Structure formats: structure tokens, C-alpha cells
Amino acid sequence: MRAKRLTLFSVALGVLLTASLAGAADSGDAPNHPDSGTWIVTLGASVEYGPKFPGSKHDGFSALPSFDIRRFDEPDEHSAPDDNIDYGLIDFGGFEAGPVVGLRDSRSQSDDDRLKGIHSVDWDIDAGVFAQYWAIPNQLRFRSEIRQAVSNGSGLVVDISADWFQPLGDRWLLSAGPRASFGNGAYMRKYFGISSSEALQNGALSAFDAKGGLKSIGFTVSAAYDVTPTWTLQVYDRFDRLTGDAADSPITSKLGSENQNVIGISLTKAFSVSF
To answer: What is the pLDDT of residues 194-205, one digit of tens each?
Structure first.
């Protein structure tokens, strides 16, 4: 996952720099007379320091891109740093819904040599739908994402969150809120299950039949600063506590940790595109 994410990061960074140069060549970051064909595109990249795989107690660096697009006349809504890439197709009365795309973590013996004999997990894209409701416009949001792995067989996840967004002055935006994440049987077996044959090959870990259900609860906080009207720098921290079979699995209880913490920093650039 690290190498793949770094590749995505390099692509995103290249696009980000290209967009910045293109924006500098234009008359400004936004057109003076926007029309219905004008969109605001936001590209970004993040660097994170956190567990090498779900349940790991060893941390490492990874990088990933971010992307957002909206019409020029649409409001710029707040978002949390752990939102996946989405696009709203339904929007009425504070309720929004549409497609969402994310990334699945990989795992191999190179992440921890004590995983000898335990199946590896390839990195993957997952896709699904999101739905969110603004109980207080642009301040209190409830959100859920349902995403299915595309090709690595790691099943379905459901993430539920709530966020409070608090502006401080003209440039700062703070946010914080709780998290809960569920995985179906395929997800839990892929990341936390150990077959009898794998247990024999490993010699130190016992077989474990991981069942679907609640896999973690947690909390996310962030602080974003508008360096310019189009450049934003954000720092964030997400803490999750693994629960149920995700916590009871020998991969977590013997090799890793129930506590999973990710620290990240991101930089985004917004610019206008006309069609």
C-alpha cells in the first residue's frame, strides 16, 4: 500500500503543481464573469503517519491524493479529513447523497516478519455510496459511507460519523467528531482471520474465524488554515479503538494493538475550470 499510495501521491502532486501554474496563467483564481460552464476543482495531497496495516502496532508513512469538484455557484461545504472522494447527486433540505470512492490497506510479511504464513492483502479501491445530513447548515453534519472492495476480496465496510465545524476568524476552521466502522464477514476474514493451515505455517498464532460486525470506534479532530483564498493547509488526527473480532484476532492481540492512531497533514489548491 505504501508504494502504491506514494505513486498516487506523486501523480496528485504533479497535477496540483500543474493546476497551480495554470491558475497563475489565468486572469485570476476565479473568473470575473462565471457562467453555468464554470466549475471549482480542488486538488490536494496528504501525508499520513499511522499503522502499517489494520491492527498493527508499527507505524509508517503513506501518502494519498484528494479531489473535489463543484459548480461555481454551489456553496463550498466543509468536509472532514477522513471523508473519501465523493460527488453529491442528490441535494435537498440539508440531505446529500451520491457515489464515493476510497482505498483499502494492504498487508504483507514485509510489514511485520511475524506474519509468516499468514495471507497477504493487496491494496485496492473500494466504491459505494455516501449519505449525509446537515442538522445545522455547514456546522453539524451526520454522515455514512458504504463501500465495497473492487478486486481484493475484502468485502464491505460501513463508516458512520458526526462532525462539528467551528470557524475561528476568517482563515481557521476546526472540526471534531466521533466515528464508528463496521465490516462484513469478508472484510473481517481478510484482515483479521487466520485459517488452520496458516496457523500451522506461522507456528505462533492460533487459527481465528473472524466474524462481521463493529470493528472500531474512534474520534477525529482537525485544524485547517487558508494560506490564501485558494491554498489550504490542514493537520488532523484520527484515533480508533478496535473492537469485537478485530480486537480479539491474534493479528491484533498478539502482534499488534487495539489502538490505531493516524496523524496527517494535507495541502489543497482550488482553481476554476470553464467548459
So the answer is: 999 999 999 999
pLDDT beyond 60 at 111: yes
How far is Cα 208 from Cα 245, in angstroms, rounded to an integer? 9
Element (H, E) at 239: strand 231-242
Is 18 strand, coil or helix?
Answer: helix
Question: In whole angstroms, what is the distance from residue 111 CA to residue 53 CA?
Answer: 8
Residue 31 is which amino acid? P
Rounded Cα distance between 109 and 60, Å, is: 15
Q: What's the burial of 176, exposed, middle or buried (CB within 10 Å: 0-12/13-18/19+)? A: middle
Find out whether 13 and 6 touch, Cβ atoms under 8 Å.
no
Comparing CA positions, the residue from 176, 16, 165 lying closest to residue 77 is 165
3-class DSSP state of 19: helix
**Tally of residues, the chain:** 275
The answer to whether the CB of 20 falls within 8 A of the CB of 76 is no
pTM of the predicted model, to two decimals?
A: 0.86
End-to-end, the C-alpha distance of the chain in Å comes to 35
C-alpha 19/C-alpha 6 separation (Å) is 19
**Residue 185, H or E segment:** helix 185-192
